[in-house]
Every structure is written in structure tokens, then in C-alpha cells.
């Protein structure tokens, strides 16, 4: 249900509150416009006051850092801000070391907190640093990309990438609060907005067919950044993730469903060197299209399902095939090797999230590697 709050000017606004129920580690996700300027009050009233260190990137800092710093200083002790380079390549050991030492130099103690202010890269990296700093300090997620607002800021997964694969080094460390200000998405480049939309579509594709139906007709409203459609898309996605995380916090069962498209997509990200050639959401879009094509090829879902999915993703401007990646020249052996580093691998056997239809994803363990190789070979040919 919406909760009403009064801004500093006395006007009333509505914000959506989605709880993530994890016992003593439970927290709320706040969704709505105009929340950034009230971040200090929202944090102070929900998790208390303390010293805080902001972690952000150069792009976000240029647009929004001054607003957040002012909001935090009004209610908390702002220890400083660390500004990192933008992009997936920042999720590495070198930047983790730089960030951790910077937070220690701020004098952050266990009762203080880190504020992750950015997209998925900053959230993953700052959350990881918070998880290992003094063996764990609190942190607040203030996601500034659509992808982070609907997915990566919720659930406590943190980590960095290595040449062997994506997010292979990290910890589960839940935030104490998530503040998703929809207004900040107005400054998000359209390519980043589209990449985030892939994760929105994922929630319909894995378990909510009516939501995917709605997205097919209303996606332009989501991209219009005009209010109700965008808020509904974010709230529906966060509720879906919160429900799965509450059932399976440490990804031993159902939570693996959230990786629909990610086994393929993460391999593609590693293959492109975590570069601007392929954003995370773009890799997920291709991966989801591949998961549906593979499922259809194996007779798991009705004919035409994969085409419907690919047509929708393409309509919003997302890639759906390997050939859509600039400079695509993948080979089967490389992709299979990279898939072998996936976190869902058990006893050396690949696990995929496959589908019986739209909204009907399931975990498929021990998928025949020969069938995967045959499928990838056909994908490379196009």
C-alpha cells in the first residue's frame, strides 16, 4: 500500500513501500518521485543517524551528487564521497581495494553506513565493500538506473567480476534500506534505460504472464518516464524479486529462476570483456531470447513463443541475437568454457533456466552439453 509523507515544503506525495521479509535482516524498498532530496530524513527515520560515506560514479555525480550530499548532511554526518569510473570494468579487485581503503580513511565504524549511489555496478561493488569492511557495516542502496531499481539493488547479492566470469567473487550482504527515486531516471541514457527494461521483462517471462502481456501494450509508457506506468513496472518487478528472495535468500532453490537468460548473457559479457560493446541488460536480453529458442527447440514450450519474446525485446530496441553485438565473432568452445564458470554449475554440470511458456520458467539441471553446443553453433550461424 502507498504511504504518505510530507516533504520539507509541506506538500504531500505518495511513495510505494515494498518490504523484503528476511527476519532480522528485513528492510523496505521505497519507490517514487522526489525521494533523493529526502534521503537523509528517510534514512534517519528508518535506520537511524550515523556517519555515512557515499560511493558513486562520475556520471551520476555530475547529475545528482550535490542533491544527495545536501540531503544527508541535513540529517547525518557525511564522511565524504568516493567517485569511481563508470562501467562494468569498475567491478574489479583494483577498484575494490581503492574503495575499501577510501572508506576506512573516512573512519567509518560498524555503526555507520555506506551509501551505494549509482547503477548495478556501484551497488554491487559498494555493497561488497560494505560487507567486508570491518567484517560488515550497514549500507543503503540508492539505485539510479532502471536495472538497479528493479533488480540488482534488492536481494543482497554483491560482488566483482574476474576474467573467469561475472560476479564470481562476492558476498551476500543485505542493504538496510533501498530508496528508488524514479525522477533520477530522467537523466539515464536511453541505451541504459533499455538495458534495464530487459530485467523488467524478465519478471513477466519467468513467472507473471499477465505482467508480460501488460508490458507488450504499455512499454512506451514505461519509457516515457511519466509516472504511473514506470512506477507500476518497478513496483511489480521489486515485489516479484522480494517474494523470491524471501523464500530463498542464498539461492539454493527458487532464487535461481531470477537468472533467466543470465547463463547465456553472463558468458557473452565475459566474452566481450565487460565492455561497452554489450551492457549487462543487453546480454540478458539476448540470453532470454536464447533460453526461449533453446526451450522451443527442445520441445519444452509451444512453437512461436520464442518469436513473440524476441519481437517484444526488439521492439524496445534490445538485441536478441549474437549477430546484434558489434564485432560478433564468437565460437562455441569459448562460450561453453565461459558458461562453465557460471555460479549455478554443480559438479561441473551446467544448469539453465528454461521455460514451458511465458511466465513458466523452471530450473533445468544437467542439461546435455552436446545439445547446448549444437544450439550455440546454430546461433552463431544465425
Category by helix and strand content: alpha/beta
**What would the CATH topology of the largest domain be?**
Dehydroquinate synthase-like, alpha domain
Alpha carbon gap, first and last residue: 47 Å
Q: Shape, please?
A: globular
Please report which band the strand proportion falls in: under 5%, 5-15%, 15-25%, 25-35%, 35-45% or over 45%. 15-25%
Question: What is the helical fraction, as a range of percent?
Answer: 40-55%
The level-1 CATH class of the largest domain: Mainly Alpha
Q: Count of helical segments?
A: 13
The secondary-structure element order is EEEHEHEHEHEHEEEHHHHHHHEEH
Q: What profile does the largest beta sheet have? A: 8 strands, mixed
Give the name of the CATH superfamily of the largest domain.
Dehydroquinate synthase-like - alpha domain
Q: Which CATH architecture of the largest domain would you pick?
A: Up-down Bundle
Q: Which assembly state applies to the chains in this document?
A: single chain
Give the strand order, joined by hyphens, for the main sheet. Answer: 1-2-3-10-7-6-4-5
The structural domain count equals 2
Work out the radius of gyration: 20 Å
Low-confidence stretches: 1-12
Overall mean pLDDT stands at 92
Number of strands: 12
Name the descriptors.
13 helices, alpha/beta, eight-stranded mixed sheet, Rossmann fold, disordered N terminus, single chain, Dehydroquinate synthase-like, alpha domain, globular
